Amino acid sequence: MGSICTEGKIEINGSICPDKKRNNVQNFVERINPTVGEKILLVGNVSNYGKYLNKLGVEVTILENENDIYKSAALQNCNCNVIKGNLEYIPFKKGYFDKIIFLNYFNSFQDEEKVLKELCRVLKYNGNIIIQENNPKSLYSKLIAISKKVSGCKCKFYNLDEIMNMFQASGFDGICKNIDKYSFIYVGRKIKETMD
């Protein structure tokens, strides 16, 4: 297994967490390739990954949606900053994070344009964004989208081309790849500074 974030190049060799039953943490850490002192923002279904990154000397911040009713990440991720909020208003200064990682959560925005601006604002130049997301064609994704719409939430699962175009237009160079029939991964590097 190789890392997906290395100096100078981006590659995808598979899922961040390909096997939900065993060795997730080791696989996650190997793929993310964290370095001591790095600042990483985790968003979505982060499980207990934050505490393991923290043990490696990474400053981990977990952004939990203020409207979600899931079990709090604070219980599973000791010594990590857990912030309730939303992606339209990320409470950090420009260029604060080295990496932003989404795990099955790049699908529920009220204002897509504002989210992209915020991600660009808080990610350092040459920083990485990693998105592992459900395939929009899968039955699972369709059921999630229906349940969110019924509950009054906005939900859109983006396909690979949409993700690539969205981030390319926002100043990223990246690659996107289907992992299996259920999910895909996007890895991008910020190559342009924003004017904000």
UniProtKB/TrEMBL annotation:
<protein>
    <submittedName>
        <fullName>Ubiquinone/menaquinone biosynthesis C-methyltransferase UbiE</fullName>
        <ecNumber>2.1.1.163</ecNumber>
        <ecNumber>2.1.1.201</ecNumber>
    </submittedName>
</protein>
<keyword id="KW-0808">Transferase</keyword>
<dbReference type="GO" id="GO:0008757">
    <property type="term" value="F:S-adenosylmethionine-dependent methyltransferase activity"/>
</dbReference>
<dbReference type="InterPro" id="IPR013216">
    <property type="entry name" value="Methyltransf_11"/>
</dbReference>
<keyword id="KW-0830">Ubiquinone</keyword>
<dbReference type="Pfam" id="PF08241">
    <property type="entry name" value="Methyltransf_11"/>
</dbReference>
<feature type="domain" description="Methyltransferase type 11">
    <location>
        <begin position="51"/>
        <end position="131"/>
    </location>
</feature>
<dbReference type="GO" id="GO:0008425">
    <property type="term" value="F:2-methoxy-6-polyprenyl-1,4-benzoquinol methyltransferase activity"/>
</dbReference>
<dbReference type="InterPro" id="IPR029063">
    <property type="entry name" value="SAM-dependent_MTases_sf"/>
</dbReference>
<dbReference type="GO" id="GO:0043770">
    <property type="term" value="F:demethylmenaquinone methyltransferase activity"/>
</dbReference>
<dbReference type="GO" id="GO:0032259">
    <property type="term" value="P:methylation"/>
</dbReference>
<keyword id="KW-0489">Methyltransferase</keyword>
